[in-house]
Amino acid sequence: MKKVLSVLFVLGLVVFSCKKDKAEEPIPTTTTTVSFATDVQPIFQQSCGTGGSCHGSSSGADGKVYETFAGASAVPDATTLGAIKHTAGFKPMPQGLGQLSSANISIIESWINGGKKND
Question: Which listed residue, of 14, 16, 96, 106, carries a Cα 20 to 30 Å from 116's Cα?
């Protein structure tokens, strides 16, 4: 009887001392809304529009205008991202120049994925 109680006691200690670890809560992240006017338009103006002179409001090569919110938001997402990432099957942009910086590509991609906000 003593042996059975000892085994039950040890078994009880083992069962109750092994607690499951709680899953760690994800660390909340701060999301910043990327705005066309504040964040994206300067990149497009420098590389694609006025500074790049190909997709400005007066030229619009291939009918794509990146200098204005209306123009930039009307271009299909895959076209914009494929071109600036130099993805196979897309005409690499800016034309004749190197790829945009990874930071600028990230800003444009965040703007697209965030719903193409203008404010």
Answer: 96
Cα–Cα distance for residue pair 104/16, rounded to 1 Å: 54
What is the crossing angle of helices 77-84 and 102-113, to 10°? 170
- Does pTM surpass 0.70? no
CB atoms within 10 A of CB 65: 23
Residue showing tokens 């071109």: 83
Residue 112 near residue 81 (C-beta atoms within 8 A)? yes
pLDDT computed for residue 28 by the predictor: 45
Report the alpha-carbon distance of residue 73 to residue 64 in Å, rounded.
Answer: 10
Q: How far, in Å, CA of 105 to CA of 101, rounded?
A: 6
Question: pLDDT tens digits for 28-55?
Answer: 445 578 999 999 999 988 888 655 567 7
